[in-house]
Amino acid sequence: MKFHQKPVSYVSDIHLYVSDLTRSIAFYESVIGFKVMKESEQRATLTADGKTPLVTIEQPNEVTPRNQHNTGLFHFALLLPTRADLAKALIHLVKSQYPLQGASDHLVSEALYLADPDGNGIEIYADRPDETWNWHNGEVEMATIALDAQGLVDEDDGTPWQGLPPATVMGHIHLQVSELENTYEFYCKGLGLDLVTKYGNQALFISSGAYHHHIGLNTWVSQGGEKPVETSVGLKWYTLVLPSDDDLSKTISLLKEVNAPVNDKDGYIQTEDPSGNVIHLVVK
């Protein structure tokens, strides 16, 4: 998982609002394979290894349904350590009879897609070896083609599914945004990340350290969309880990140069992209 540790900047965890905490905990445990690390009346922190938070789910008071045309979460993506792990996840999901929304080969990775009971999108994927990725003039080649499901299943060793492997990480986050020009300025000039793929005027994929993408951004259903109301189901915030205190200081200066909000909180810096997606900047 070299693209999710120093000296790379990467997404480490997210915070979601849900409409029914009990229902969501059951889903994330039984279908996705998380363990509950911490739980209170309105909130639960989910982990794969028992000590590292990956997703926090919270049921706010007077929660409102998700509007798919608002900005916010498109999906969060859990990166499994191996293709065999992805095979076991696919077999489990088929046996659970929980509906999949898609299964794709992206050349750089293979992925399964589904949504939680509130419609929050989830990708579960495994990367192909990075030495097989094709780069052209600073852009990585990606595609969306049919997954070789049988070839994937053949990777399974036949042992029982035991939930998410402990080495699972938050591979990337994919966001719905209202437009791309100011979004590019914020993420590439403000946060200092690199554009690695652009799909016309509808989607950007950006990363650190030559990963295929740590953050995806699209306007497919959210062009001109508004920020969700405060109590809406969906993304509350996500965390971007920077390599060092120097990198954090430089990023704060860059954000101020593009007139992005910068707020010093207890233990992190909070900023917000032009579409209202909240980001916690930390150094670990």
Structural class designation: alpha+beta
CATH class: Alpha Beta
| Tally of separate helices | 5
Question: Strand content of the residues, in percent?
Answer: 35-45%
The CATH superfamily title = 2,3-Dihydroxybiphenyl 1,2-Dioxygenase, domain 1
Order of helices and strands: EHEEEEHEEEEEEHEHEEEEHEEE
Q: Could you say which overall geometry the principal axes of the C-alpha atoms support?
A: globular
CATH topology: 2,3-Dihydroxybiphenyl 1,2-Dioxygenase, domain 1
- The total strand number stands at 19
Task: Provide the residue-averaged pLDDT.
Answer: 97
Radius of gyration: 18 Å
Q: Main sheet, how many strands, which sense, barrel?
A: 9 strands, mixed
Description:
With 284 residues, the chain is α+β, with helices and mostly antiparallel strands. It has one domain (2-283): 2,3-Dihydroxybiphenyl 1,2-Dioxygenase, domain 1 (Roll), CATH 3.10.180.10. The chain has helices at residues 21-32, 83-96, 149-153, 181-190, 245-257, and strands at 10-17, 35-39, 43-47, 53-58, 72-79, 102-105, 109-115, 121-127, 135-136, 139-140, 145-146, 169-176, 194-199, 203-207, 215-218, 234-242, 263-264, 269-272, 278-283. Strand 9 (135-136) and strand 10 (139-140) form a beta hairpin. The longest helix is centred in the N-terminal third of the chain and has 14 residues, at 83-96. It is globular. InterPro entries: Glyas_Bleomycin-R_OHBP_Dase, Glyas_Fos-R_dOase_dom, Glyoxalase_1_CS, VOC_core. Residues 10-127, 169-284 form the VOC domain.
